[in-house]
Amino acid sequence: MKTQVCIIGGGPSGLMLSQLLHLKGIETVVLERQSREYVLGRIRAGVLEHGFAALMREAQCGERMDKEGEIHDGFMIAHDGKMDRVDLHKYSGGSSVVVYGQTELTRDLYEARDRMKGIVIHNAEDVQPHDLKSANPYVTYRKGDEVVRIDCDFVIGADGFHGVSRKSIPRDVLKEYEKVYPFGWLGVLSRTKPVSPELIYAKHERGFALCSLRSQVLSRYYIQVPLSDNVEDWSDEAFWAELKRRLPAEVAERLITGPSIEKSIAPLRSFVAEPMRYGNLFLAGDAAHIVPPTGARGLNSAASDIYYLYHAMVAHYKNGDSTGLDKYSEKALARVWKAQRFSWWMTTMLHTFPDSLAYDQKLQDTDLAYLFSSEKALGSLAENYVGLPF
After folding, report:
1. Element of type H or E holding 241
2. C-beta atoms surrounding 338 within 10 Å
């Protein structure tokens, strides 16, 4: 098999790049280790920056997002028994975010690839890129007893943190930066009316909490828990009781509880791999960087990678200009590190850290107090939350 661009990873990043390139007449093949049902069963973030939403529309996949997604012009931060609102629209110069579940977004992308008869190969085992430094790289995978080879011009590694792509870069070339936080998020998805029309981030001495939503009938809630906790340690009743303890009284009183549809614990990690290009391999999304979910930058950081790759590939194939490809790693990493900084700042400001000094706690309190006393500080938060320019 031969194609122009072989994309490893059939999540939203890989699918979006495949769709965008297809619309420009550039051939792609997407390889995904899991089944489509497995990919669509993953529960992930649902806050899309305005640039991501625009990219979905350019990919001709934004119709349902625009119809069912919710535009949010702000969010709340609960602290010290009160709630302050961050007016995103006001402080970002008129921008906003769209709340739309990643599962639904991925479904839209799959349906678009089906409509255009795009090649997405599921249950591809033992995927391995080869000859990445040559002008003729290729990728092999196993389907049953058969080993299939795909010859291509470029390989895109969009196969997540545990995928094979990043591991294909020699250790003496790759540099990794990592920070592991001493806690995780216990998340519950429930078929209940959200407690608030906008997200509520809650800072509390017992730990962080977040009230989020997927729709007006589907809610997503999180509480900070120790890394030693297991999902089995938390019954639905225990989760709801602890969530209420961390919310302002008036919010806790109107919280509608119900059976969990999904319950999981996600550890918090910051991670960046450099460079994001090795020969004709380009890393994108979680294959190259991970952020804590606090600032809603994970999927959005992946989207900026795809934006840069898409435009660089189009310039290469249509105009013979490889400048964008040559500068991809440098350009992508510049935005990635800004997202890292913002996510680290939000996480540090709002979470309770075990064994933190009284000094650290006072700095957290001062950080929040300063935030809501300064329009420039609110402007910086809003600018980063709605998404920095690509």
Report:
1. helix 236-246
2. 15
In residues, how long is the chain? 390
CB count within 10 Å of CB 318 equals 11
Gap between the Cα atoms of 224 and 210, Å rounded: 9
Tokens of 232: 């089995």
Residue 153 makes CB contacts below 8 A (sequence gap 6+) with 4, 5, 137, 280
Residue 165: CB atoms within 10 Å = 28
The sign of the torsion formed by the CA atoms of 9, 385, 347, 233 equals negative
- Centroid of chain to Cα 62: 18
Tens-binned pLDDT, residue by residue, of the chain (390 aa): 999 999 999 999 999 999 999 999 999 999 999 999 999 887 666 889 988 899 999 999 999 999 999 899 999 999 988 899 999 999 999 999 999 988 899 999 999 999 999 999 999 999 999 999 999 999 999 998 999 999 999 999 999 999 999 999 999 999 999 999 999 999 999 999 999 999 999 999 999 999 998 888 889 999 999 999 999 999 999 999 999 999 999 999 999 999 999 999 999 999 999 999 999 999 999 999 999 999 888 889 999 999 999 999 999 999 999 999 999 999 999 999 999 999 999 999 999 999 899 999 999 999 999 999 999 999 999 999 999 988
**Residue 15 contacts by C-beta under 8 Å, 6 or more apart in sequence?**
30, 106, 109, 110, 112, 113, 120
| Token pair belonging to 267 | 């550890």
Region label for 190, one of left (φ > 0), alpha (ψ between -120 and 50) or beta (otherwise): beta
HSE (side-chain half, CA atoms, 13 Å) at 260? 20
Phi-psi region of 41 (alpha: psi -120 to 50; beta: other; left: phi over 0): alpha
Residue given tokens 């430094």 in the structure block = 133
Q: Is 84 helix (H, G, I), strand (E, B) or coil?
A: strand
Angle at 274 between CA 273 and CA 280, to 5 degrees: 110
Q: Which two tokens stand for residue 45?
A: 């973030």
Cα 273 to Cα 285: distance, rounded to the nearest angstrom: 11
CB-based contact 156:312 (threshold 8 Å): no
Question: How many Å from the N-terminal Cα to the C-terminal Cα in the chain?
Answer: 34
Contact 127, 164 (CB under 8 A): yes
